[in-house]
Amino acid sequence: MIWQFDLLILALVVICAIATITVRDLLAATVIFGVYSFLMCLLWAEMGAVDVAFTEATVGAGVSTILFIAAIFRTTRRSKD
Amino acid sequence: MKTLALLATIVTGALLLYGTRDFPDWADPQSPTSTHVSPYYIEHGVEETHAPNLVTAVLGDYRSYDTMFETVVIYCAGMVVVSVLRRTRS
Amino acid sequence: MKRLQERANTRPAGQGLIIETSVRIMVPFIQLYGLYVIVHGHYSPGGGFQGGVALGASFILLGLAFDLPTTLERMSERSNALLANAGVLIFTGVGAMCAILGGYLLDYSVLTAIIPMAAAEWRSLGIFLVEVGVGLAVMSIMVSLFWDIGSAGQMDEGL
Fold this sequence. Notes:
The structure holds three protein chains of three kinds.
Chain A: H1 3-22, H2 26-47, H3 50-72
Helix pairs in contact in A: 1-2, 2-3
Chain B: H1 2-19, H2 38-49, H3 54-62, H4 64-85
Chain C: H1 2-10, H2 17-39, H3 48-65, H4 68-74, H5 77-100, H6 119-150
């Protein structure tokens, strides 16, 4: 556990989380959410929980992003509010 | 209304951060989580289940009741999506 | 030249020769990797859930690069439903078999009554059977979720 590395990843996680809820374009929000999942995966791998990191990489970043995109294709692209 | 929401978020976040002060340190050998069942798994896991990856041994054998209903939950979710959305062609 | 351009313009969004060819090459390796993750879960990170998602992702990738009927050729609706049920039934069946033979639920060591082996070996084999069940169920559920959400349940063309 290297605290400089930890701090960098955590800062990027917070930035991605804020960007996900502020961005207007739904597709962009989904892609940033995928980036968030990958950063969490990196954090877990760095803390030694490799199984959890693997699950996060496959489910969180892979399949759930695709399912979000598939749902967005059935809606209008830009958020109304 | 927006400032109220922001205030509520900040107060909740500060309370949660205050709560994490009581957590044990990362990988602390004296914390309650690593003094009760973890030593048993580490000492007897390989000889009892022949699975060198302890996570698999715990998920598949010691705590398989949990894993079983996790699978059932995923199955139920899939079946609900199928029954709500799918239109069968005749 | 003009006809080529016309065909390129009328192609549905997201489809192209490069994508189709590279996906055609990648998919078998992804499936092999998914099987490896399931089978090798005892020794390395991974297990039924992760391997099942990787297997399902290979079909989803086919559906993204081509269209939905292509995935339906590879795995029909009927076999998808069959695999989902079979996966859950393998898991609960192994657990119930332990209870029927007189042990606790999901205590694989009592299964020595079926095939005489050491108790620890049966527990190892029991973990493997359970992981295969989880992998089958998760794979088919992920594929069917993609079908239903991607085509709004119409199962015609997909994204």
